[in-house]
Amino acid sequence: MHKAGEIFLNCLAQGVGIKGLLKSAFELLQMPMHILDPSFLELERIGGEDLQDLRWLEYRDTGYISEVQLRRLRTSGFLEKVQTAGEPVVDKSIPGMDVIGCDVYARGKLLARLGIWCIRPYTQDDLAIVKVFGKALSAELQKSHPSYLDLNRQSEYFLNKIISNQIETDDMVNALAERYNVKKTPQMRLFLVRQETGGDGVSTPEYQKNRLGRQRFALMASSLRGLVAVVIDNKGFSTWMESFPFSPHFGELLCGISREFHSLESLFEAYREAEAALRFGEGKQVCTLYDEVFFFDLLSLSGNTRGDIQKLCSPSILKLKERDDSTGSSLMETLEVYILNSGNMKKTAESLNIHYNTMKYRMETIKQTPGLESLSYLELFKAYLSILMLKKNSG
After folding, report:
1. pTM of whole model > 0.70?
2. Which of 56, 229, 287, 311 is deepest in the core (most CB within 10 A)?
3. Are 229 and 183 spatial neighbours (Cβ–Cβ below 8 Å)?
4. What are the pLDDT digits (tens) for 306-336?
5. DSSP E strand stretches across the chain
6. Within 214-305, where are the H helices?
7. What is the CA radius of gyration of the chain?
């Protein structure tokens, strides 16, 4: 024991970090072990290359403790014991291999969770070493806490600040994204998830955040106010729609999905769209796209300022308006009159006092705008509402 204390103190003095401490503990105990963050997501792992325990294999392949295992640990009382004992606790609930658990605290705050897999019968000396190791790990984590969390959750910190509307300018958004090395792609969407049923104290928003944040195409994830926000690369949109919620153990989840956006500066508006989709689509289906509730959101916010209305309007109409403003064309007016004339090209041309061929050319140009290709009833309805709102706020 005295030797273990000296080894860990030496590690702290030399500044070898979490990996160095973990390596020293492994050399002392000669048993596979891992360090998890408070939500059971892996920080570091060592050993266990040949370990065939199904729990270890499942954990090793995913990088986090599964909901099934967490439910078992909670039912057995292990989690409650390890959280209150303040020292190592042994999980003996499954025959074959014991697991030593030890939660690492500092000033009453849970920083990490230790797990040591007993490939041999453990001794009291082993438990004593684990206890000292936990204290050394607590000291190491406090050196950089909370920057310790920044290293592991920097994109989550960024996303939290954005969706909490704490960033005032686009320049600040970009500076923060660069500081945290946030992932981004040219096309993104935001999924906002809420659990309706099936919660058992294990499948928490924090846990769902980790699960969804590790799915393919996920760029960043955060849990805030009981919801889980996940930003994905829009290339994976169809995969997410087909596979959501990725696990039968989640219980019933509802999801609101923003429109596609192209820059991190649009993240807050994407969050607002996803929240509206979740709110207006509640109880109707698992996943609700913002475009499906666009009208309800537009009407509910019709008294907002001009800037907000522009964000709410159909991107297709905003593109037409931008083209009209830059070239002097009248595409938005043409589309409005076309809608008022129930799609009758001849009557529209007469109303606008233009030649039929000119009218035909304008409509072909309008159809080249993404979102207006087919001029379906849904597209035309969204377009007309957007035009009305733009006209109301320009007067």
Report:
1. no
2. 229
3. no
4. 445 666 678 888 889 889 999 998 999 999 9
5. 33-36, 42-46, 89-91, 99-106, 109-117, 188-197, 218-224, 227-233, 252-257, 287-289
6. 237-243, 267-280, 294-300
7. 28
